[in-house]
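## retry 2 of 3
previous attempt timed out at serialization; input unchanged, resubmitting
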Amino acid sequence: MNMLPIRRAILSVTDKSGLDDFARFLQEQGVELVSTGGTRKKLVQAGLKVRSVSDVTGFPEILGGRVKTLHPHVHAGILADKDDSTHMQTLKDLRLTPFDLVCVNLYNFAEAVRQTLEDKQAVEQIDIGGPTMLRASAKNFHSVAVIPGPSYYAECMQEMKDNGGCLSLAFRKRMAVATFALTSEYDRMITEYLSRS
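## retry succeeded, writing output
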């Protein structure tokens, strides 16, 4: 699909700079917002209407937040190919709703390294759900837009303004490339840290 209408977004970010304005823009465009704990709390405090991931999954965040987005209600909605009628029928049969935009940035593992934490503490700063959502949405850029950091918010908003609330395939592919570069660098940093400790 060339032009993707943005109707439903999931937001889960560590770096919350610019988040309020971006989420407010999305909501003003009629986009349903879904979010995780701290991100949702910030957006609700900013006066925005945001569904919690737990409401979507029907399952609470568990293991101290280690498991919250790793659920079919999230990942089927991200990975469904909107051009494949069997995918869309599966979502319908299982009462799952697709996502159109995934806005995620990762736990700051570099900061954990700078703090010279013990391994047991440092590994808690290794993001699992975030990279999984980023990689899933980047893989599925034909059907989903991924926004991997605040530096892309302005471009995303301008794209939507220019395209009647849609994001172009070219933009989505550029964001996929940026996302895979980011997750690759994140994994490299973790690999180097664990190799020397």
